[in-house]
Automatic annotation (TrEMBL):
Protein name per its UniProtKB record: C-type lectin domain-containing protein
Entry-linked Gene3D superfamilies: Mannose-Binding Protein A, subunit A
Every C-type lectin domain range: 54-216
Lineage, uppermost ranks: Eukaryota, Metazoa, Ecdysozoa, Arthropoda, Hexapoda
PROSITE patterns: C_TYPE_LECTIN_1 (PS00615), C_TYPE_LECTIN_2 (PS50041)
PANTHER family for this protein: HL04814P, RE43931P-RELATED
Annotated SUPFAM superfamilies: C-type lectin-like
Organism of derivation: Acanthoscelides obtectus
Amino acid sequence: MRVTCAVVFTVLSCVVADPAIAQAQSRPVSNRPGRFLSLPNAQKCANRPKQFFFRGHNYFFSGHVPELAGRKVDWLDARNICREYCMDLVSMETQEENNMIFRLIQQNDVPYIWTSGRLCDFKGCENRPDLEPKNIFGWFWSANREKIQPTNRAPAGFSFNPWSQTGHKKQRQPDNAEFDINGTSESCLSILNNVYNDGIAWHDVACYHEKPFVCEDSDELLNYVASTNRGIRL
Ligand SMILES: [Ca+2]
Ligand SMILES: [Ca+2]
């Protein structure tokens, strides 16, 4: 079974090159075997929900799409729902984009969402001094595999640090708090809406929790579907 999974992973990684799959497969918190990243569905990509548009990308909040409203899913399922639409979970590379997502959460009173932020703590992340210590330098946007800037200061171009200054342990985020409770790492980036009386802020959260989510266009998947479906309108 392991060999089969590895082969499938290799095939998938030719298209998406995402080591997060390997981690998702080996996570003890999931009882579901063989979980992989989904490939895009051309028809769904062409008809994907386009709730709002920013700097060349379309976005939607799952709670505002009739077929997804009310659904809460774990981090990998959220990614895969987005990916079938040639999207991926949202990544906030700029303060402007981050503020747009914070506003969406505030105006709609959304308690929390998943983003594509991920801790590089799986196979392939070893022996990388540039990622140490992991809680400061080990985060990246899985949607495009860009590094997230050090967690202990305001990212370049931001006037504030979007990571919360508090949480379960009353320590600044990321705090990997659930690890102390049940041994599960907080490897996924969620935006929480005032859960710790801390306003709307970034938190590291264990990836098995079920949440609504925001999808953002994936250039990689849109280009892939465009190049393999001549004449398709995306
Ligand atoms: Ca983005
Ligand atoms: Ca946390």
